């Protein structure tokens, strides 16, 4: 694994259209065993089930490989609210800040 993680940080709305652009980036990182992935959703103003699904699929691929992925979703953000409402906040490695995500093992 490389020392430098790959940080994917979508901005604005993470909806069906944006998820189509995001999915290839997530797939590339998920299938590269040398990459540690941080998905920073702190600048995401809106996230729907399609956007969340793209992130969850990447996490599942990475987990099957025995690797970890960190998700940044500050408390009160659109991403944090959706993760909490869906119950995924208790299953996924969610951090309040990018710094905390980067410091995690």
Write a structural description.
The chain has helices spanning 16-31, 49-64, 78-86, 98-103, and strands at 6-8, 12-14, 37-40, 44-47, 69-72, 94-95. With 105 residues, the chain is α/β, with parallel strands linked by helices. It has a single domain, classed as STAS domain (Transcription Regulator spoIIAA), CATH 3.30.750.24. The chain has a four-stranded parallel beta sheet with strand order 1-3-5-6. Strands 2-4 form a two-stranded parallel sheet. Helix 1 (16-31) runs parallel beside helix 2 (49-64). The radius of gyration is 12 Å and the shape is globular. The relative contact order is 0.19. The model has no long low-confidence stretch (mean pLDDT 92).
Could you give a short description of this structure?
The protein is built from four helices and six strands. The protein has 105 residues and is of the alpha/beta class.
Radius of gyration: 12 Å
Overall geometry comes to globular
Percentage of residues in helical conformation: 40-55%
CATH architecture: 2-Layer Sandwich
Number of domains: 1
Please give the oligomerization state of what you see: single chain
What fold name stands as the CATH topology? Transcription Regulator spoIIAA
Mean pLDDT figure: 92
Number of helices: 4
Query: H/E element string?
Result: EEHEEHEHEH
The unreliable regions are none
| End-to-end gap | 12 Å
CATH class: Alpha Beta
Which features characterize this protein?
105 residues; globular; Transcription Regulator spoIIAA; two-stranded parallel sheet; 4-stranded parallel β-sheet; alpha/beta; 19% strand
